[in-house]
Amino acid sequence: MISLFTSLSKLWRIRHVHIDGLVFRLHYMLTVIILLSFCIINSSKQLLGEPIVCETSRGAIDAKIINTFCYIHYTYTVFDATDQKTSRTDPHLHRSIGADSDRIAPTNHPYYQWVWCVLLLQSICFYIPHWLWKCCEGNKISSLVSSDLNYFDDTAKDQKIALIVHYLKESRGRHDWFAIKYFACEALALFNAIIQIVANNAFLDERYATYGRDILVDWWTKSDPKITADPMERNFPILSKCRYISYGSSGGPERIDAMCVLSINIYNQKIYLFIWFWLYFLVAVTALLMVHRFILLSWPLMRYYQLRCRMDSSAIAGDNQCKRKQMVCDLQVGDWFILYLVSLNTEPIIFGQIVDQLSQSVPIRDRFNSRFFAIEGTNLSVAECSKM
Fold first, then answer.
1. Which of 24, 68, 318, 376 is most solvent-facing, going by the fewest CB within 10 Å?
2. Where are the transmembrane segments (predicted)?
3. 149's torsion region: left (phi>0), alpha (psi -120 to 50) or beta?
4. Is 71 exposed, middle or buried (0-12, 13-18, 19+ CB in 10 A)?
């Protein structure tokens, strides 16, 4: 099992060339590792341990038979249908295995043998957006930016910078679809995270949407466990009931009730609590990222400041600051995105040199000033630029 977790850790290995952002990597790297780890834990418990142990009041049924039957079919719990509380007349009665009656609503639990499979499918779903982006990216960035560029000697480094600048200059205006595909993959990652919350809620019989919140409320209010059902136990009961139909010597059916211990739910309670918080966290940060992307797409000056954060401080304070700002703001979204990916794979001082040389070689279109800054003329001094 340790070797399996070691293999999973390779998903989080340091990549020499980055082709995406940190939030996107949370989806296909960290989330996939988390889900596959939980899948291994759950499946090992089912294969190597005893996920369910049942007993009956009669000793006529073999323990293996009743265990196998209740595991393959399902178990159920009994809670009060009106006030969701257990019987106050018998405080020792376990809250999930109350007596059957007309006013008691049984809750079936058919999910536990499928948890590992669902976790595996979810990990695949979280990897799909990255796989699609890798197919669309086609190693463009790795061929453009060498992983050891930062360790070249000065001559080789200057030659490589010149090649990058030449490519960015000659391919200007041809990368819009490239950027759109990436933003679409990020949107797909957000959509997938939302779908996984909905899927988990459906998988757990519409009781998962507020699972984490209910547990926090229960812990905060310190509800009496003898009266109010624990949200963990309501969703993932440790004790449950199972009904087995046997046939006697006369051929008539006999109903045999068994009490089952679902030890596997000790893991499931914590696994799905963590997944609940993690999925909502992913949705929140990815939604904020989408807002950030929208601002970048609609405001060229923000795109400049995004790249400026990746430059060395000496490059920011240089005499070419105005021209760099003009050049970056005049770039189309696709060209800016390629430049942004280059910034992720180079040192700030090298990236500053790339932007500086690019601003010297790329002509600024006449419509730039009136479009973005409402200033007449294209020949601005550094002093005039500092007033923007």
1. 376
2. 21-43, 111-133, 179-199, 271-296
3. alpha
4. buried
Distance CA 224, CA 216 (A): 14
Backbone angles phi, psi at 87, to 5 degrees: -65, 125
Q: Which pLDDT tens digit goes with each residue over 265-307? A: 999 999 999 999 999 999 999 999 999 999 999 999 999 999 9
pLDDT digits (tens, 9 = 90+) for 88-116: 334 334 555 555 554 566 788 888 889 99
The predicted model scores a pTM of 0.81
Task: Please state, in angstroms and as integers, the Cα–Cα distance from residue 301 to each residue in 33, 304, 324, 372, 382, following that order.
Answer: 37, 5, 11, 8, 17
- 75-80 and 104-109 strand pairing: antiparallel
Phi, psi of 258 (to 5 degrees): -120, 145
- Three-class DSSP category at 257: strand
Report, in this order, helix, strand and coil percent for the chain, each rounded to 5.
60, 10, 30
